[in-house]
Amino acid sequence: MQFLGGRICPTIWMERKSAVERRDFLEEVMKGVNEKSGVPILLFPEGYCSNNTQVLQFRRSIFKKGITIYPIAIKQDCRFGDSFWADEEFYMYLLRVMSSWAISYDVTYLDKMCRFSQETEEDFAARAQKVVSNFIGVPACEFSGLMWYSKSEQRRLLEVQKKTCASAIMSYMVLDRSESNDGYHSVCSRNIDGLKHGASMDPFNS
Length: 206
Known about the structure:
Elements: H1 2-8, H2 19-34, E1 68-69, E2 72-77, H3 90-98, E3 104-109, E4 113-114, H4 121-136, H5 151-171, E5 175-179, E6 185-189, H6 190-196
Antiparallel strand pairs: 1-4, 2-3, 5-6
């Protein structure tokens, strides 16, 4: 696959697990960007496959000052075939894709973007991610594809999910505050108390 890809289009390869190769890759990309030849370099800033339901967090390394980004919004039409790689073995994935009726994508070239003077690499990457996600109509994920492989990212995602669930539960709770004779305040939730008796969780019907 690498040989075929290199013959079709000049390609820069790297082993993502190697810090040295990642550094050399970035240097090669920056060298190509700064050359006067004006040859564009196509990158996929997510760095991982995604299943068309969200835009993963963009890698920040290329979002530097003086670099012009030309975002491309790509959205797959899954009605005829799904090219998302979720198979255990590559040959199974290849067989599924090659036997699909068609693999269809909507590709839109968006307006160019440059980094603002007060913007960090993270901010610029997040802004570009948001532009793409808004255009294709899916959420911008605050996690990268590492969440599928990294234990620390999985733990961080779990904490975010816990906080989100807690906020959702609290939004249904209508708190009553009442002062007792001894001066203390008691707080209770009509919804939670009512839930024990089979009442609705709708605070407006309490």
